[in-house]
Design brief:
single chain, mainly alpha, 3 helices, elongated
């Protein structure tokens, strides 16, 4: 019984360590300067109100 608990604790510590280490690595910054052909505004008819929110939230790197 003590062996199971010890194994569980070791696995738990390893998982926590992996998650902590993963916090130091992130995805590359998106430096794409064009709106792709698959953009929702090009594919769908987006209302002006929604497009305004998208421009503020998502297209800030294009300006």
């Amino acid at each position: 019984m003590a062996s199971r608990k010890k194994t569980f604790n070791i696995i738990l510590i390893i998982l926590i360590a992996v998650f902590i280490i993963a916090q130091f690595f992130g995805p590359e910054e998106n430096t794409y300067q064009q709106v792709p052909d698959t953009d929702i505004a090009k594919v769908e008819n987006v209302p002006a109100e929604v497009m305004s929110i998208l421009k503020t939230s998502c297209y800030d790197l294009l300006e």
